[in-house]
From TrEMBL:
UniProt entry keywords in alphabetical sequence: Membrane, Transmembrane, Transmembrane helix
Pfam family of the protein (one): DUF7305
Annotated protein name in UniProt: Uncharacterized protein
Putative Flp pilus-assembly TadG-like N-terminal domain boundaries: 10-56
Stored InterPro entries: DUF7305, Pectin_lyase_fold/virulence, Tad_N
Residue ranges annotated for the DUF7305 domain, each copy included: 274-402
Segments crossing the lipid bilayer: 12-36
Length: 416
């Protein structure tokens, strides 16, 4: 017996027998930790790829969602099934200045994609070894990514939503008085003049993701944040390919109230009282359109088209809430002034009751914004493309989206 206790043969075997379960458990968890890390990495890659693919398809929302889903799943972990469904894709408006999001449809400038392995997607991660060691698996994982289009402007970021297309004149984009203009996007002036962008007075301000013109500014105009710079690429009309509509069966405008249907209106036209515009295109031919203080106008899926001989004046404090169509040839355009309206002008008095959700497109027209909006409740617009753009008075304006009717300009970039 004494010899037995002194015999050291087989000690390693005994020790191995005692420690082997512990070592196997540690190894099992190490392997499964590697599996989880691999899946987390692949899910992030899938979300990133899906977001970039989706944003490249904007403004076509259906194609954006389809591309995001397809590309995300092509980059999913092996044998993970569908990690991204259509319900995992969000079309949003990203405010670069505030770094915030809001849900959007036709006016989206960003795509957010979530890639998931969980019970709802029927693709939870199964541990290879740890389940035999009493682990609580299977495991759920997810990754999210948001992509936005960035422009090629020097020193700037974000797609443009304010364009001044006059090719040669000075003062094509101006701020004056005590106006306050806030853009969650970029502003661009096409003019070759070194003074294309200017300001008058010390109180006027414009804030954007970037502000640029075709040439290096001769002086740095006051009130712009960031400072005006030279654009990194030429500025062109992003909606130049959009065809103008054709008038059919025009009738005299006169005084309009109640519920209106799409069609062609001509001559002196005044909106009065409560006016509801049914969805569609309203063609104004040789019309002088006035929207005065006592008017309350609303409509969804609406485009107002002004031919070369028509004019529009919004003054006083009317209540105006118009949303552009989300489909069709004029998708995203809420107001369209003919390209033949060379030298024409539009005057829009902005106040807290003016809301134009879409593109104000007047490529041959000078657009002037005036009014009494406040910084806490400014007049709200989607985007504006005009020959010249002027802001004056003590008004406050907010522009909140990139162009929904044409492919978004620039490069895609991940923002989180």
């Amino acid at each position: 017996m004494r010899r037995f206790w002194r015999n050291e043969e087989g000690g390693v075997t005994l020790l191995s027998g005692v420690t082997m379960p512990v070592m196997l458990g540690i190894g099992a968890f190490a392997v499964d930790l590697g599996v989880l890390r691999y899946n987390s990495m692949r899910l992030q890659i899938a979300a990133d790829a899906g977001a970039i693919a989706g944003v490249r398809q904007l403004p076509d929302t259906a194609k954006a969602i389809q591309a995001a889903v397809t590309v995300a799943n092509l980059n999913a972990p092996r044998n993970a099934g569908q990690v991204t469904l259509a319900s995992d894709v969000e079309l949003v408006v990203y405010d670069a200045a505030a770094k915030t999001y809001r849900a959007a449809g036709a006016t989206a400038n960003a795509v957010r994609v979530t890639a998931v392995r969980d019970a709802a997607h029927q693709n939870q991660v199964l541990g290879i070894f740890s389940r035999f060691a009493g682990s609580a698996g299977p495991f759920s994982l997810s990754a999210r990514s948001t992509a936005i289009m960035t422009s090629d402007e020097e020193g700037g970021a974000g797609s443009a939503c304010l364009y001044a297309l006059d090719p040669t004149n000075s003062d094509t984009l101006t701020i004056a008085g005590s106006t306050m203009v806030t853009l969650s996007c970029a502003a661009r002036a096409k003019s070759s003049s070194a003074a294309a962008i200017s300001s008058n007075g010390n109180a006027a301000q414009m804030t954007a993701t970037s502000i640029c013109q075709a040439t290096t500014p001769s002086l740095s105009p006051r009130g712009y944040s960031p400072a005006v710079s030279k654009c990194g690429s030429p500025t062109a009309d992003p909606l130049a390919a959009i065809a103008e509509p054709t008038p059919i069966n025009c009738k005299s405008g006169g005084t309009l109230s109640g519920t209106l249907t799409p069609g062609c209106y001509s001559g002196s036209t005044t909106f009065r009282g409560s006016v509801t515009l049914a969805a569609g295109t309203y063609y104004f031919q040789g019309a002088s359109i006035k929207i005065n203080s006592n008017a309350s106008i609303s409509g969804s899926g609406v485009t107002l088209f002004l031919d070369a001989d028509s004019s529009l004046t919004i003054n006083g404090t009317p209540s105006v809430s118009l949303t552009a169509p989300s489909s069709g040839s004029l998708k995203g355009i809420v107001l369209f002034q003919s390209r033949g309206a060379t030298g024409a002008s539009l005057s829009i008095s902005g106040n807290s009751s003016v809301f134009l959700d879409g593109v104000l497109y007047a490529p041959a027209t000078a657009v002037t914004f005036t009014g009494n909006g406040t910084t806490t409740n400014p007049a709200r617009y989607g985007s504006v493309i005009a020959s010249q753009v002027h802001f004056t008075g003590n008004s406050a304006f907010a522009f909140g989206s990139t162009l929904p009717s044409a492919p978004v300009n620039g490069r895609s970039a991940l923002i989180n």
